[in-house]
Amino acid sequence: MDSPNTNHLMIGRPGRMRRRLIWRSLKQSRLALIGLFLLIVMVTLSILAPVLAPYNPAKSDIRNRLKPPSWSLEPGSHFLGTDNVGRDILSRVLYGGRVSIFVGIAAVTLGGILGTVLGVTAGYFRGTSEGIIMRLVDIQLAFPSILFAVAIMAVLGASVLNVVVVLSLTSWATYCRVARSQTLSLRENEFIHAARSIGTRDRVIILRHILPNALSPLIVIASFGVAMAIINEAALSFLGVGVPTAIPTWGGMLGEGREYLRIAWWFSTFPGIALVLTVFGVNVLGDWIRDYLDPRLRTLI
Q1: What is the model's pTM?
Q2: What is the mean pLDDT of residues 126-146?
Q3: Nearest CA-CA partner of 115 in 161, 183, 179, 42
């Protein structure tokens, strides 16, 4: 009989081996490592914004309006310059990352959960529920997502919560279609028929057998969806229908700075750089996740 210590080692070994394989695969992709590093840096800076920001991001100072970047560390200097009402750009970029990254993650989470639940329901139970859900998907996909988001935001009004809700409503259909297709394929497998034959409840089959085997493509879509949600939030804020202007966001800063590009290039440049670096990091890491989860593309040794 195996001892408890032996059983513990046997149970823990697969988890450690999986982590080692993931790390080995990650090290083989320099772009993925760069993307992971950029994401860690941007998320850390955003989380520590209250500690790192040298000024209150909402405090204006007309006397220092459109002040260019100063690389000096003297008190009162602005490392990345100031905006049209004298607010510190560095502080607003740091705080803006908190909103933009939160909106991206929250929108993907809500949209992914909603789309996955509806897609699995449609693919597993079929019948009338599938017809209704897929017609809703067709209607959703018939509208350009950004125009649909702008129209809803114009009705609901500008707020962080409304942006999250709108972006999740514009993205759920993709998750729904993928979840349904995966479920349709899985429900015909022998292990599903075997589970039904012994009287396993549908809820248990879905949670234990369908969802775990359908998650890989959904995770890949979500990884790219975060970048798209961040871009869409920036676009809505740029157009003035996203997050209120009193709350700093990268898209809002780009929108405010577009009128000052010739005389104050720093106004839009630095939030734009932060946005590009974050989206680049998410995209290249998403590429690696796709390669790792797809057995046809996996390059593990």
Answers
A1: 0.80
A2: 88
A3: 179
